[in-house]
């Protein structure tokens, strides 16, 4: 076997550096593993978010602190959409799709204020060098998200039900103390992105007990990122 090429060595060095940066952020700041994973899932590269990462993010969204961190990142990424740097925003749509069908029910209300920018993405046009129509992909995903965000919620309920059926063999994931949730929510919101529903009652049900995956998040939870 030959020695690694310069390109391979460069990739290895880049990966090593990124892992060290992640470890430092986890150790020295208040960033959470779910927050880091959400950021990584929306970088401006050609690779879409993988299924495992989206599953971890959607489960983490049932924890109040991680919920606000995750939606904060998604809001910002959606509003950064432009014709030159569109991949990160497209990935945000992919993750939002997964959260709408697998995450807390409140996600639907949270992203009502992003509908205008999603409509802008629905008219995006782009062909890559191989003549692949990425504009069509972005439009299709945007249109699906807008349908999931419709006020009558019929399509959303249908898709959440479909997600639940696909994972019906997994047991329920436990319960939360609503009073404790409200207390933690109020505390965590003080330094996060102001949500779409700022004027609504903070005690409103997050849908924590309606996880389509029905998985116990407090047992055998896989690590979110490597260190």
UniProtKB/TrEMBL annotation:
Would I find Coiled coil among this entry's keywords? yes
Keyword terms, alphabetized = Coiled coil, Cytoplasmic vesicle, Golgi apparatus
Q: Which residues form the ENTH domain?
A: 26-159
One Pfam family name is ENTH
Q: Which GO terms describe its cellular component?
A: clathrin vesicle coat; endosome; Golgi apparatus; plasma membrane
Q: What is its main location?
A: cytoplasm
CDD domains in UniProt: ENTH (cd03571)
Q: Where is coiled-coil annotated?
A: 139-166
Q: Where in the cell is it found?
A: Cytoplasmic vesicle, Clathrin-coated vesicle; Golgi apparatus
One GO biological process this protein is involved in is: endocytosis
Top-rank lineage group of the source organism: Eukaryota
One MF term in the entry's GO annotations = clathrin binding
What is the name listed in the Swiss-Prot or TrEMBL entry for this protein? ENTH domain-containing protein
């Amino acid at each position: 076997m030959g020695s690694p090429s310069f390109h391979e060595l460069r990739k290895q060095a880049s990966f090593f550096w990124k892992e060290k940066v992640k470890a430092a952020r986890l150790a020295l700041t208040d960033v959470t593993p779910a927050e880091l994973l959400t950021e990584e899932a929306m970088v401006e590269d050609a690779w879409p978010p993988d299924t495992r990462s989206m599953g971890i993010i959607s489960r983490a969204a049932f924890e109040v602190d991680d919920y606000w961190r995750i939606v904060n990142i998604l809001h910002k990424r959606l509003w950064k959409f432009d014709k030159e740097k569109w991949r990160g925003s497209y990935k945000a749509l992919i993750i939002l799709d997964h959260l709408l069908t697998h995450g807390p029910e409140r996600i639907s209300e949270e992203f009502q204020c992003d509908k205008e920018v999603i409509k802008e993405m629905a008219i995006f046009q782009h062909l890559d060098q191989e003549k692949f129509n990425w504009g069509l992909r972005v439009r299709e995903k945007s249109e699906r998200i807008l349908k999931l965000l419709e006020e009558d919620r019929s399509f959303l309920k249908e898709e959440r039900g479909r997600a639940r059926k696909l994972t019906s063999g997994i047991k329920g994931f436990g319960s939360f103390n609503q009073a404790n949730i409200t207390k933690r929510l109020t505390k965590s919101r003080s330094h996060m992105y102001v949500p779409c529903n700022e004027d609504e009652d903070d005690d409103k049900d997050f849908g924590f007990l309606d996880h389509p995956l029905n998985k116990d998040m407090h047992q055998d939870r896989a690590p979110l990122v490597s260190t």
